[in-house]
Every structure is written in C-alpha cells, then in structure tokens.
Amino acid sequence: MSKTSYSVHFPRVLHFGSGCRGLAASEADKLVSGESVRMLLVASATVAASPMGLDFIASLGDRVAARYCSVPHDPPLSVVTEIIERIRQDRINVLMALGGGSVMDASKAAALLSQGQASVKEYFDGTLPLPEKVLPMLALPTTSGTGSESTPNSVLTDTEGHLKRAIRSGLMVPAAALCDPDFTLELPPRVTAESGLDALTQALESYVSSGASEYSRGLAEKASGLILKWLPEAWKNGSHAEARLRMAEGSMLGALAFAQSGLGAVHGLAHPIGHLLNLPHGFTCAVLLPQILEWNLPECQKNMDVLARNIGLKQSADLLLQVKKLLQTLKIPDNFAAFGLTAKDFPYIVKNCRSGSMKANPRPMSDAEVDELLQKLAGA
Q1: Which tens digits make up the pLDDT trace of 229-250?
Q2: Rounded to an integer, what distance in angstroms lies between the CA atom of residue 357 and that of residue 166?
Q3: DSSP element (H, E) containing 139
Q4: Can you tell me whether residue 57 is helix, strand or coil?
Q5: Which stretches within the chain are classed as H helix?
Q6: Are the C-beta atoms of 258 and 151 separated by less than 8 Å?
Q7: pLDDT(1) > 60
Q8: What pLDDT digit, counting tens, does each position of 263-281 carry?
Q9: Which of 81, 146, 76, 166 is nearest to 120 (CA)?
Q10: How far, in whole angstroms, is CA 63 from its chain's centroid?
Q11: Threshold 0.90, pTM exceeds
C-alpha cells in the first residue's frame, strides 16, 4: 500500500544536466539578494585540485571568501565544528558543497548547526533541539551515489562515542542543487561501483518502504531502472557520457524518492556495520542488499512484482536475480567474513541498528532475527 497523505521536501531549485555547474554563481547571488556573497567552499581536495574543479571555482570569482578541503570519509563531529568555526570567522553568508556524500553531509550539518549556540555533539546527541534557521547552501555532487544534495539528513560519526547515525531536519535540504554529471566522468571503477550501488539500494528501499507514496514510488521506479541499466556501463567505461548522465539522473531521482519515504533495513544495518569494520557505505549496503530484499519479499512481493514489470522484467524473482548478477559483475562479496565480522560484533550492531531506516523496513526484524542474519554475513 502507498500512503494516502504525505509532504515532500526538496531544494528550492534543482538543476540537472551536463554543464549546469555554470549556474552556481547566479544561484549564489539569489540566495543573498542585496548583499555581496561571502562563500565558504567546502570541497573534496581531489575535486578542488582537478582541472574541472579549478575551472568551476574560478567561475565563482571573488564570491569565494574561504575554503575548507579536509572532509574525510564518514565525517566526524570535529570536522563539522571546524567548518562552523570558519563560517563564523570569515562572516560567511553562503555555503557551497562540492564533493561526494561526506562533503555534502558535513556541509549540511554545519549550515544548520552554525545557526545555534550549542556544540555539535549536543545537537548530535539530541540534548538540545536543532536550530530553526539555516545558512543558505548550494550543493554540487561529484559522485552518483548518496543523493545528499536533495535530502533532509546528514550522516555523521561520533568517534569518541563510537556511533554513526543521521541527524534530520527539513532545513538541511540545500536551497539549490546542481547535478552535473561531468564531474563523474573521471571517477575510478571502485568509486563508481560503490556509489552507484548505494544509489540503487536507496531506490529499491524507497520503493518498498513503509513510508512510500505514489509520489516516491514513481521516482524510485525510474531510478531503479536507470541504475540497473547504466551502472555496468559506467563501471566498465567511465568516460561513457550517457552512462554517466543516466547514473547521475538515477541517483538524483532515487534521493528525491527516499527523502520523502525513508529507507529500510539495509541502511539501518549499514551504518553500524560500516562504522565497525571501517568500510565504504556503498560497499556495505551492496553486501546487505540481496539478503534484505529476500527477507522483505514475503511482505512486499506484490509491490516488487509491479516494480519488476515496470522496469522490463517479469517478476520480483527476476529483479532479485538481476541485482545479484550486478553485484557479481562489480565484484561485491556476499558476506563480511573477509573484513573481520565476528560474533563479538553482533551486540553492538543489534544495539545501534534501530534507526528511522530500520523502522521504515516493510518487514520488521527482531533482535534475534538480526542476529541470525549477522551469522550469515559473518560467513557462519
């Protein structure tokens, strides 16, 4: 069943297509009408130093008042604190995020939390309510994966508390998103695979989420079909312009879907497992995906059959088979045994998987059922 009433949150403006990065300067000007733009550019160091990145930054001219290019994988709270310090020190009135999911998440959190007076950790822990205003922000993703440029959440890591989870606020949706696939043309195969499989997981989980609506399912369906068709080509031939374009489109549409519907058990489990084993998020999701699809099938086979038919397959069994074949092609293993997952890790994962994503899964999983799944994933 689909929800019969729902609300949607998305950027004020979303530009898509090759070359749309050229609109960033004018969009920044609109965000501070009547003022001079003082922009903090938060960027991946690799992207910022690339020829395309350098040209893009040059196109922003003297709007760029400061830069921050030190966001690591799984951004810790300390990085968000450092970005906030730069915002205040340099009197920033626009934030520009240029990079993958980690850059996006750190930037979105800083844009919101900089408007409050408490520490990042206090907001992360839920000790205090999140601020009710946000620094205007633009987002330009450089991977086709997280879709964070159009979602109301930010995934952060508390390294001291040994916890990775999301904070959520509709205010964190960037004011303007520019999805330009040109930035993905030089991505290496591994990053292409992992980011693309994250996008596929998001689309499939959104489609069957308990929060799904006709609005979100339409987007998730289109995203699933695009990614299943074009990810193998983008992985094999990174310079294939149409493959990159369609992957960027699939990632964008899938994010617009799950931003409204929520996700599922793959993401609920991926955060603690990925944090514990220090694995890339997209890779972790990919290993989990077929197991969770099979688990959910008894509860949502009718919907999965509809999705399969609408993307050119016969039934849900064919969709599951295509997903498994794609994972084999992209060299994704079927468990985490080689990465050190053992029974001693199970209590931590069970304790920390009970997120909003887990609650949105169409078929509930008890602690005992999570434990049983983890045994398979540990290679037992």
Answers
A1: 999 999 999 999 999 999 999 9
A2: 10
A3: strand 137-141
A4: helix
A5: 24-31, 45-49, 51-59, 77-89, 101-113, 120-125, 189-208, 214-236, 241-261, 265-277, 281-310, 316-329, 346-352, 356-359, 367-377
A6: yes
A7: no
A8: 999 999 999 999 999 999 9
A9: 81
A10: 28
A11: yes
